Structures are given as C-alpha cells and as structure tokens.
C-alpha cells in the first residue's frame, strides 16, 4: 500500500522547509494522547509505502500508558503490529525543533483493513452518516487551559504564574503580562496552519481560552484541537512554565472546558438549523438528541477521574443535560436560531477529552435526535421547566452507563464501546484505590 498524498505532501514540505532530520509520526490514542515514533527524514518513502509499524495496542492504553488485558489488545494476543498510514495534509514543521517535521497517522491492519479502535475512524463513520443525507456539519471549537509555575515534581500541586490575578476574567493586562509567550503560541499555530481566532484571559488565575475558526472539515477541527494542546505545552515549557488542559487543576477555580459550536449545511450550503422564528424543527431535534444521549456518553465528555470535579454546583461548568437560548449555565446553549449562524453550543466536555471522540458523541447525538424526531424539552430557564436530572459526578457510574449503552454501540460501534469501558474500568481500579496525602494528613495520627 502506498500513500501518494503523503508523498506529495513530503515533496512540498521539502521544497518549502528543506529535508527534515526526522519525522515525528503521531498516533492519537483513546485518551487523546499522541503516541508514535520518530523516523529519519530519509524514511519518508518507507512511511508512504506502509513500511512503518506500531503495535495495535497503541490505540488503547490506559492513562498511565499501560496495556489493559481486558481490552483484548496487547500481549494477551501476542501484541501484533499494525501499519501506520499518514493523514493527508497533516505534515507540519516543528518550530521548537531545529529540523523536524510532524505528521498525524492512523493505523490499519497490515493488509490495509481499517481498525475499529481508531478514534478518527469513529468520527469519520458518523460523518459518513451525515454525508448520506447530503449534510455537512460545521464546527468551531473552544479550548481552555491553565499556565502554571514550573513544579518541583509531578505530584506537586499547581501554582499560578506571576502576577497572580485572583479572577482575571477577560482582563487585558493578564494577556499583556504573558504577551511574548501567547504571541509565540499564536505564531507557532500560524506556522502549522492551525486556524486560531480569538484569545482571552479566562476566569481562573493563569487561565486562557482559545477559539478556532469554524470549518466544515470536522476531522481537521478535531486535529487542530489535538495539535494545539501539543503546541501550548511545548511553547510554555520554553518560558520555564507548565501548561495543563486538565479538567480541574484547582479546587477553588473554574475547570478547563472544551466547547463545540455546531451548525449543519445542506448540499446547497444553506444552514438547515435556521428558522424564521424560534428554534427550528431540525435544530430542536438535534438539541433533543444531544440531551437524550448525554448521560450515556458522559464517560466520553468526562473521561478521567479528575474530570468529575468540574461537575459541582456554581463551578462554572454545566452539570445537567439541559438547554437554553444564550444561557451559559445550560449544558447546550443556543446562541442563534436564524441565518448562517444558527447553531448549538455543547458545553459539557472538559478540555481533557479526546477531540475525535467528543465530536463523535456530539454529532452522533444530534443525528440520533434528528432520525427519531426527538421532541425538544422546555428550556431550562423557561417558567414551566422542571430541572433536568443532573449528570453524575461519579466516574464509575458514568462508565457503567456507557458500558451498557445501546446508544454508545450505535454511535461508536460495539467493539469500541467495550474496549473503552475496559480501559476506563482498569483506570478506576488503579486510581481510586490509591491512598491520598489528604487521607494521611486527616486520619493517620487522629484515629
């Protein structure tokens, strides 16, 4: 198998940037972590011809990087290899390196058969269902992150950078104090073709939010969010600081979210969500579908132990499958209902998600509601509205709902649903049984 797209991408890269010393092959795993290998720049032809491999289990380690036998992958089945396939258009320079290129890759069986474990493949399958209807989703992502002082060790708590604004909410001085670093982040994004839009200082100390331009290339939107996290960590490290997209770094400050604005175009380019008055029928069904599927997909939107700390009252994160017009307390906000900007904004996911999987759940939930003509419940701020049942703040409960979900099997495939559940249950068993410093401090000498 050969990849003429990658060969053409590589020739264009060399013409513009020169021959790289190495190519960093980056595979997005279940957790949204980039794994892979470096190959010599001279090995581009080998990558293009399907000669570069990784174990199939690379798609589904736990957050610690360990194999999970219950997933059916890894050494329990001999840990066989898959073939790396470069994703067209993702060969980029690496500005913080002297002479390197990076490229996102997927993995297939050695005969080229697609794998059900590819997060990108799960999103592509949902997009194919939209294409069959003649529709194109348009998305715009927003990501929040914190900048921290460099810590002495990995288990040390975070400390905000100086100056420390207790609440820097849209404070322009907070941007000015980090001017060089933030400007470099935006510059690296431009060099890599990541379509950034606005940048603001968010509420928490050292917290910022980036908005990306809307696009009908949903796969590229997910990849932009994925690569942006890498850019931020690398650039911030060069300033002697750290950056995190962890869902809730500080107990007493807002968490990091990933918001997704979604509209829907037909074959003529018209927005099918638009209505002359009020929430249109198709948009209403889409919102209802997202709300109905949200509890069973919550383990995607909140994948980790720390993710559930965001879902607390008055913690600047929506906590229920509810909706409203231009109300940021709702799980689904509807900023506009008429014209090209008619859309929904999904506000539940943390910035710690796998962007491919989060968009699969959002777009899949929308389609689930449209296909069933799901009725739109009253807005959460309507006078006759009963409060929606809150999303669970318990990790195990969310994973158990996911594991038993026919909705998850429909949107992601039964194989992926079961592998994802196995990995998360492995993490629950390992992480929730650790005895914390808080417990020692509170109980060890008092009981």
Q: Report the uncertain regions.
A: none
Q: Taking all residues together, what is the mean pLDDT?
A: 95
> What letter string, H or E per element, gives the SSE order?
HEEHEEEEHEHHEEHEEHHEEEHHHHH
What's the end-to-end separation, in Å?
Answer: 65 Å
Helix content: 25-40%
Radius of gyration, Cα only, in angstroms? Answer: 22 Å
Structural category is alpha+beta
Main sheet?
Answer: 8 strands, mixed
Name the shape in a single word.
Answer: globular
3D architecture notes:
- The protein is an alpha+beta fold and 447 residues long.
- The chain has 13 helices and 14 strands.
- It has helices at 4-17, 44-48, 119-131, 172-177, 179-191, 218-237, 281-293, 298-301, 355-371, 395-403, 406-412, 414-431, 437-443; strands at 22-28, 34-40, 53-55, 81-86, 92-93, 100-108, 136-149, 196-201, 207-212, 241-244, 258-265, 323-325, 332-336, 343-346.
- The strands form two sheets. Strands 7, 8, 9, 10, 11, 12, 13 and 14 form an eight-stranded mixed β-sheet that branches. Strands 1, 2, 3, 4, 5 and 6 form a six-stranded mixed β-sheet that branches.
- Helix 7 packs across helix 9 (355-371).
- The longest helix has 20 residues, at 218-237.
- It is globular and about 65 Å long.
- The N and C termini lie far apart (65 Å).
- The mean pLDDT is 95.
């Amino acid at each position: 198998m050969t990849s003429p797209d990658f060969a053409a991408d590589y020739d264009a890269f060399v013409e513009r940037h020169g021959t790289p010393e190495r190519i960093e092959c980056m595979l997005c795993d279940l957790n949204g972590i980039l794994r892979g290998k470096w190959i010599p720049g001279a090995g581009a032809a080998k990558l293009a011809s399907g000669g570069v491999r990784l174990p199939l289990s690379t798609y589904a380690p736990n957050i610690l990087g360990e194999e999970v036998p219950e997933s059916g992958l890894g050494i329990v089945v001999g840990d066989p290899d898959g073939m790396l396939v470069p994703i067209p258009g993702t060969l980029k320079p690496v500005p913080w390196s002297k002479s390197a290129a990076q490229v996102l890759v997927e993995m297939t069986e050695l005969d080229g058969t697609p794998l059900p474990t590819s997060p990108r493949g799960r999103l592509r399958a949902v997009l194919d269902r939209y294409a069959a209807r003649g529709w194109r989703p348009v998305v715009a992502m927003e990501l929040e992150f914190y900048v921290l002082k460099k810590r002495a060790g990995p288990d040390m708590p975070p400390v905000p950078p100086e100056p420390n604004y207790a609440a820097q909410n849209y404070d322009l001085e907070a941007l000015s104090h980090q001017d060089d670093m933030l400007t470099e982040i935006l510059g690296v994004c431009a060099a890599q073709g990541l379509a950034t839009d606005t940048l603001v200082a968010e509420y928490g100390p050292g917290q910022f939010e980036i908005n990306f331009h809307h696009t009908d290339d949903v796969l590229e939107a997910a990849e932009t969010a994925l690569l942006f996290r890498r850019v931020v960590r690398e650039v911030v490290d060069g300033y002697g600081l750290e950056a995190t997209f962890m869902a809730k770094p500080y107990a007493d400050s807002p968490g990091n979210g990933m918001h997704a604005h979604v509209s829907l175009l037909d074959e003529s380019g018209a927005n099918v969500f638009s209505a002359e008055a009020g929430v249109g029928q198709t948009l209403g069904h889409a919102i209802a579908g997202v709300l109905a599927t949200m509890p069973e997909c919550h383990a995607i939107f909140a994948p980790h132990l720390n993710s559930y700390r965001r879902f607390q009252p008055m913690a600047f994160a929506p906590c229920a499958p509810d909706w409203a017009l231009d109300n940021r307390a709702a799980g689904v906000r509807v900023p506009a209902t008429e014209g090209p900007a008619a859309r929904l904004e999904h506000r539940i996911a943390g910035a710690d998600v796998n962007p491919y999987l989060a968009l699969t759940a959002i777009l899949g939930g929308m389609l689930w509601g449209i296909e069933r003509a799901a009725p739109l419940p009253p807005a959460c701020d309507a006078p006759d509205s009963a409060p929606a049942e809150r999303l669970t703040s318990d990790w195990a409960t969310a994973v158990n709902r996911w594991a038993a979900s026919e909705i998850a099997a429909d949107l992601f495939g039964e194989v992926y649903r079961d592998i994802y559940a196995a990995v998360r249950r492995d993490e629950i068993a390992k992480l929730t049984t650790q005895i914390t410093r808080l417990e020692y401090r509170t109980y060890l000498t008092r009981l």
